[in-house]
Amino acid sequence: MFIQCVMASLLGSLICLDRILIQSMIARPVIAAPLMGFFLGDPYSGLLIGALIELFWIDRLPVGTYIPPHDSLTAILITASCIFSSREIGHHFREIMAFSILIFIPCGYVGQKMESIHIQMNDRLARAALLCAGKADVNGVAARHLLSPVVYFLLTFFLILFFLLSGTVMTTFLFPRFPLSVLKALNMTFFFFPLLGIAVALNTIHLRRMVPVFCAIFLAIAGILEFFHVI
Q1: C-alpha separations of 127 from 64, 75, 155, 180 in Å
Q2: Does the keyword Cell membrane apply (predicted)?
Q3: Residue by residue, what is the 3-state secondary structure of the chain?
Q4: Per-residue pLDDT at 2 exceeds 80
């Protein structure tokens, strides 16, 4: 498992580099998570997790000096840990996914702090590059320019590796010991997450009149499903 975690961490770090380099939107959770899932042989789980994480923080935009939670890091961690844990345990897919989301969501704020530190480091590198430019030191300017993505890659790699290993070990250790009541609660939580994501999306686009419509549609579908379940 350690080698798989290292490989997943390398891929995740490369994907996250898109946040500061090309910025082609590959690092968005809805793309990053399916890519990780495809690499690990389970693109469906990646697509589902990516869509959920994309909705969770869709209202947190990097406007001005605001640094949003690191949703790319979170989506990659949840996807990899969910796939590794499901293979190790062999069942409880919904419950494992819900549990992975719950334990890795805080990692988005750890990544947010990491990006804040990286931005402060970039300020110092920019000032150092200006001094090198004043001395006509082209190599010094190039070295400080390249140092930024290298440091970002290494920070992301070690963060992913640490949290992925610890989270996967914790999941595989705890799940066989969970009582049935906890598994049922996690199963219900799995179905709650899409509703939470849709609520965030509706609030973001300010379609307040659509909230009652969504609630009515949800209740109607729930009633129909319950009716057929009873029959």
Answers
A1: 21, 34, 22, 58
A2: yes
A3: CHHHHHHHHHHHHHHHHHHCCCCCCCCCHHHHHHHHHHHCCCHHHHHHHHHHHHHHCCCCCCCCCCCCCCHHHHHHHHHHHHHHHHHHHCCCHHHHHHHHHHHHCCHHHHHHHHHHHHHHHHHHHHHHHHHHHHCCCHHHHHHHHHHHHHHHHHHHHHHHHHHHHHHHHHHHHHHHHCCHHHHHHHHHHHHHHHHHHHHHHHHHCCCCCHHHHHHHHHHHHHHHHHHHHHC
A4: yes
Residue-wise pLDDT tens digits, 14-58: 999 988 888 788 888 889 999 999 999 888 888 888 888 888 887
Q: What is the rounded CA–CA span in Å between residue 35 and residue 46? A: 7
Contact between 204 and 58 (Cβ < 8 Å): yes
What is d(CA 49, CA 102) in angstroms, rounded to the nearest whole number? 12
Work out the percent of the chain whose per-residue pLDDT is above 70. 85
**pLDDT tens digits for 62-106?**
776 778 888 899 999 999 999 998 888 877 778 888 899 989 999
| Residue ranges per structural domain of the chain | 2-230
Query: pTM for this structure?
Result: 0.82
Cα–Cα distance measured from residue 118 to residue 161, given in angstroms and rounded to the nearest whole number: 19
